[in-house]
Amino acid sequence: QVQLVESGGGLVQAGGSLRLSCAASGIIFSFTMGWYRQAPGKQRELVATIISGGSTKYADSVKGRFTISRDNAKNAVYLQMNSLKPEDTAVYYCNAKHERYASYEYWGQGTQVTVSA
User: Which of 83, 98, 92 is nearest to 113 (CA)?
Assistant: First the structure.
């Protein structure tokens, strides 16, 4: 069982930056870690993922602005968000999915990010 706790959300003006953190209660070495977001009235969507080997993937809408990283020693994953836009406003969720046993998947409770125009 892995518990995920996000932090770092808040209110920021367009063009600003935020850094989200996700702390895991268990070892995340064998997990693909990801950030997803859900805006009001919309489906949850992938923002970025990072596999255990360090390769990353980003949604087209955030490429060049967001950076995902992980610290396996600290069981943590981060999302650095720069050049924020109002359309980035959403609840951001941390996700952990085991790379071999996909049924082992966990979600955090989410953290609100609001970008004002």
Answer: 92
- CA–CA distance, 61 with 103 (Å, rounded to integer): 28
Token digits of residue 30: 């064998």
- Identify which of 36, 40, 33 has the alpha carbon closest to the alpha carbon of residue 56: 33
d(CA 21, CA 39): 19
The two tokens of residue 94 are 């941390």
Closest CA to 108 of 95, 90, 91, 89: 95
Query: How much of the chain is helix, strand and coil, in % rounded to 5?
Result: 5, 55, 40
Tens-digit pLDDT profile for residues 3-51:
999 999 999 999 999 999 999 998 888 999 999 999 999 999 999 999 9
